[in-house]
Amino acid sequence: MNAAAGVFRTVGALFVAAVVLNYPWEMARSFLFAPMGSIAQATWRCFVASLGDGLLVLAIFIAGWLAYRRATWFQRWSAGTIAFAIVLGAVTGAAVEWWGLNTGRWQYEPSMPLVPGVELGLVPLLQMPVLTLLTLWVTDAVVNRFGS
């Protein structure tokens, strides 16, 4: 397989894995947010949010590609690559959460655990760092298993 085809396969696998992993997280945490309408409306909104999460994970992947100068940067785990993914995931997640709250896109229920000092929800703040790492791991496994 040529390099371009490998990158496209990796990007496709990464996006699909990110959406598949983020969708259940979005659904599971939805009770911590103000109601989003009917079950069908909430399900749709969580799906659309997981598509956005997929794009954010792609952005983190691209940032890693630029920083490490190789598209396979996440396939050789080190303390540096793990920290890179966690920090970018945390910063990205915090920025999106801050934006959503401050623009009125969503609101928390009183049951949402908040991080003291920043008053952002703990569950959404954990999502991007945790699921970015998991997405990169799954993508590596899929590409190595089916990519050859």
Written overview of the protein:
The chain has helices at about 5-30, 40-70, 80-100, 120-145; strands spanning about 115, 120. It has one domain. The protein is globular. Helix 1 (about 5-30) packs antiparallel against helix 4 (about 120-145) and helix 3 (about 80-100) crosses helix 4 (about 120-145). Strand 1 and strand 2 (about 120) form a beta hairpin. The relative contact order is 0.17. The chain has 4 helices and 2 strands, in the order αααββα.
Name some characteristics of this structure:
globular, 148 residues, 2 strands, mainly alpha, two-stranded antiparallel sheet
Low-confidence stretches: none
The biggest beta sheet reads:
2 strands, antiparallel
Strand tally, please?
2
> Could you estimate the helical fraction of the residues in percent?
over 70%
Run of helices and strands:
HHHEEH
Number of domains: 1
What's the average pLDDT? 93
Query: What gap, in angstroms, lies between the N and C termini?
Result: 7 Å
Computed over alpha carbons, the radius of gyration is 16 Å
- Determine the structural class based on helices, strands and strand pairing: mainly alpha
> Strand sequence of the main sheet, in spatial order?
1-2
What's a quick, concise take on this entry?
The protein has 148 residues and is an all-alpha fold. The chain has a two-stranded antiparallel sheet.
